[in-house]
Write a structure and sequence with these properties.
By secondary structure, the protein is an alpha+beta fold. It folds into two domains: about 1-35, no CATH class; about 45-80 and about 110-140, no CATH class. Helix content is about 45%, strand content about 25%. The protein is elongated and about 65 Å long.
């Protein structure tokens, strides 16, 4: 445990700050850390096998949690299968995706591009904090 984290927890234990204030301070402290130092769930280097999406929410005062672990092999297979879909169907799917606010062109997905994306996903952790939710997306 680093000194700053210990100081925050000491302030909380002494009653000088509230739990909510301690949580905000710890979150700010973690945001200043490089991703490799953020949490204990960091996996050893190697080829990633899963895309992980974690969502913690508070809805109407009730906590909620979503924990999705998608095998990257499934993504690879999906891209290969997309090559078998007729162009007219892909065009209609693109239209619906666009209408839903997802700017993704399925006709541009290529297996070799997916491999490059997977390679870079290994180095990326996306964290989004809002008053009602915390979202983390990473590979493991």
């Amino acid at each position: 445990m680093n000194d700053q984290r210990k100081d925050i927890l000491d302030l909380l234990a002494e009653g000088k700050i509230t739990a909510a204030e301690a949580e905000r301070l710890l979150s700010a402290l973690e945001a200043d850390q490089p991703p490799a130092a953020v949490g204990p769930d960091i996996r050893p280097k190697g080829r990633p096998k899963y895309l992980r999406v974690l969502v913690d929410t508070v809805d109407n005062g009730e906590p909620g949690r979503v924990n999705v672990r998608v095998p990257l092999q499934l993504l690879r297979a999906g891209v290969r299968l997309a090559a078998l879909v007729p162009p007219q169907a892909l065009g209609r799917a693109n239209t619906e995706l666009s209408r839903s606010g997802v700017p993704l062109d399925l006709t541009q997905l290529k297996p070799e591009q997916l491999e490059a994306l997977v390679e870079h996903l290994d180095e990326v952790t996306v964290e989004v904090d809002s008053p009602d939710a915390k979202v983390r997306v990473f590979c493991e």
